[in-house]
Specification:
The chain is an alpha/beta fold and about 500 residues long. It has 2 domains: about 270 residues, Aldehyde Dehydrogenase, Chain A, domain 1, CATH 3.40.605.10; about 180 residues, 3-Layer(aba) Sandwich (Aldehyde Dehydrogenase, Chain A, domain 2), CATH 3.40.309.10. Helix content is about 35%, strand content about 20%. The protein has 14 helices and 22 strands. The strands form 6 sheets. A 7-stranded mixed sheet has the order 14-15-16-13-12-18-19, sandwiched between helices. Strands 9-8-7-10-11-21 form a 6-stranded mixed sheet, sandwiched between helices. A 3-stranded antiparallel sheet has the order 5-6-22, with no helix packed on it. Strand 1 and strand 2 form a beta hairpin. Helix 2 packs antiparallel against helix 4, helix 3 runs antiparallel to helix 6 and helix 9 crosses helix 10. The longest helix has 21 residues. It is globular, with a radius of gyration of 24 Å. This is Succinate-semialdehyde dehydrogenase. Pathway: Amino-acid degradation; 4-aminobutanoate degradation. It holds the Pfam family Aldedh.
């Protein structure tokens, strides 16, 4: 498939350049649009409505109107809707993958893998929707009977990032709909076409008008976010993005005391102990560090390798990286695509330059690749990293792997925890006692042991410290969109009536 300015799909009706409000495809009230570019070429592939607070309010109103009837649907009815939406995603996986590659840049194989992962959230929460159990609680007051029910929180606002254009939106919409909520989702300005295609499939799945609303904006993103956080009608906001923006949204939400769940920045430590299996550790590091060209929140950012295995690991790891093929995601054989924009390239380059200035040695890569396009950066390996380098304290969000040597278990755990964020952490060891010790000592919401891939719809996803709060996916994910109501019935004790 050759790169062109606009995607060619099996079902061309899935390429939609409008927003979706109240079951209708609409433009911005102002008539303004913004361009969406292919990061591999820098060329425009289409436009989307530049919506503002008035458009956002229209979507909120539609969701509010739909909520009273949708909340009364049974869990089984909502399960069928989600299951049908899941199946439509799988039936159109090739087209959805192409849309992701065009607007995000990731290789087509990775994009199709994301579609499956994204669809699985609908499948998972279709199975959770009918199993929304409350409790019967023994009362301490004679004659009282107590039980709880779980109810949808109401209209929810969702704000998602560009690095997983399908999965980040399904991971939020799935549990929201399973709980009986209605949704206003702000799609990423860099990657809105995937979200629009998902909205079209929601329409085909028979999800009622107003239940799912997708609004688009680039320059007006902050205005849209404030409209969602300041609205009394929106009772919950879920956001995935930077810690800086998350703190802004949290402040904006304080006046309306919303329920919040935030998945924010990471700075994941990846630890390889002397007793680790070398091949397993190298493969795990490759999978964790370079997935999406390093543009995931759970990417290994600081790779700590114990001194006894450091040189062997550095050599084997670098050999793997040298075999990558960088290029446009729709080209055959490409393993790693471009970064999302030139700012990402500049940050990767700055981290490399800072490391080299302070004594780091580049084993491979370290440069821009302008011959391929405006947003390409070489997959990079740097050894002899130190704790005062920028990469040790900042999330690169790019294909730069810094290898830090360490001496002892206590030393590396201290270094791993020396950060204000705590989303994911990884370590490799054959010692089962060490596995428990270190897993319990690492200050992150998620830990991978002898694996570099931890994301799964069945497992809770989220962080601690400045990486946010709340959990997505798993049986816990639906709780973020519900409230627990306690019902106490008095005067229930007494003698049986009659003879």
């Amino acid at each position: 498939m050759a790169t062109s300015n606009a995607p060619t799909l099996k079902d061309q009706s899935l390429f939609i350049q409008k927003s979706y409000i109240n079951g209708q495809w609409v433009d911005a009230k102002s008539g303004k649009t913004f361009a969406v570019t292919n990061p591999a070429t820098g060329k425009d592939i289409g436009t989307m409505p530049e919506m503002n607070k008035d458009d956002t309010q229209a979507a909120i109103d539609a969701a509010a109107k739909a909520f009273p009837s949708f909340r009364k649907t049974t869990g089984r009815e909502r399960a069928r809707m989600l299951r049908k939406w899941y199946q439509l995603m799988m039936d159109n996986a090739d087209d959805l993958g192409r849309l992701i590659t065009w607007e995000n840049g990731k290789p087509l194989t990775d994009a199709k893998g994301e579609v499956t992962y994204a669809a699985n959230f609908f499948e998972w929460f279709s199975e959770e929707a009918p199993r929304n159990y409350g409790d019967t609680i023994p009362a301490s007051v004679v004659g009282n009977r107590v039980f709880t029910t779980k109810e949808p929180v109401g209209v929810v606002g969702l704000i998602t990032p560009w690095n997983f254009p399908a999965a980040m939106i399904t991971r939020k919409i799935g549990p929201a709909l399973a709980a009986g909520c209605t949704v206003v989702a702000k799609s990423p300005g860099e990657t809105p076409f995937t979200a629009a295609a998902l909205a079209e499939l929601a329409h085909r799945a028979g999800i009622p008008a107003g239940v799912v609303n997708i609004i688009t904006a680039l320059d007006n993103t902050a205005e849209v976010g404030e409209a969602l956080t300041s609205s009394e009608t929106v009772r919950k906001v879920s956001f995935t993005g930077s810690t800086r923006v998350g703190k802004i949204l949290m402040k904006q939400s304080s006046d309306t005391l919303k329920k919040l769940s935030f998945e924010l920045g990471g700075n994941a430590p990846f630890i390889v102990f002397d007793d680790a299996d070398l091949d397993t550790a190298v493969n795990g590091a490759i999978a964790s560090k370079f997935r999406g060209s390093g543009q995931t929140c759970v990417c290994a950012n600081r790779i700590y390798v114990q001194e006894g295995i450091y040189d062997k690991f550095a050599t084997a790891f670098t050999e793997k990286v040298q075999n990558f093929k960088v290029g446009a995601g729709d080209q055959d054989g490409v393993t790693h695509g471009p970064l999302i924009h030139d700012r990402a390239v500049s940050k990767a380059k700055a981290h490399v330059d800072d490391a080299v200035k302070q004594g780091g040695k580049v084993l491979f890569g370290g440069q821009e690749m302008p011959n391929l396009g405006p947003n390409f950066f070489q997959p990079t390996v740097i050894r002899d990293m130190k704790s005062d380098m920028q990469l040790a304290h900042e999330e690169t969000f790019g294909p730069v792997a810094g290898l830090f040597p360490f001496k002892s278990e206590a030393d590396v755990v201290a270094m791993a925890n020396d950060t204000e964020v705590g989303l994911a952490g990884y370590f490799f060891s054959k010692d089962i006692q060490r596995c428990y010790r270190v897993a319990e000592a690492i200050q992150t919401g998620m830990v991978g042991i002898n694996t570099g891939l931890i994301s799964d719809p069945a497992t809770p996803f989220g962080g601690v410290k400045h990486s946010g709060f709340g959990r997505e996916g798993s049986k816990y994910g639906i709780d973020e969109y519900q409230i627990i109501k306690t019902v106490t019935m008095g005067g229930m004790a007494g003698e049986l009536q009659g003879s």
